[in-house]
Design a protein that fits this description.
7 helices; single chain; mainly alpha; elongated
Amino acid sequence: MDSTEVKASPSSSIAPAEKAQTTPVAEKIAVKTPAKQPAKAAPKVSSKAASKTPVKAAVKAAPKVKAEKPLKEKKAKLVRDSFTIPKAEYVVLDELKLRAGKLSRQVKKSELIRAGVKALAAMSDSVFMAALKVVPAIKTGRPSKE
């Protein structure tokens, strides 16, 4: 009989802790899991030793060439705003959207407003002032519920 094999009989006087070690499940676990050995430290390679191998040193020292990426345009920051507009002028926005659709160019209301701002910015001072005089001033804020 091996020293590793210990058979426990019900009438033997083995302590409960020793009985647990001799059960078949405990034996299987002991066989599957080897005893832990202290981890070995990886050998340290000094920089002098690394420089002794010229091929590895040349590969490490070679500058990495990155592929040139096309310059990305920075996205313009967007501002969300709300405003009050008379119903008649709001209807004109819808008519302009339909007009652009007939010309095979789908647009959004915000695109129409931005195009209008660009058109106003391109005007001379006298034409700009004439356009502002045509637009009546309205009370700011939320419209009253009618």
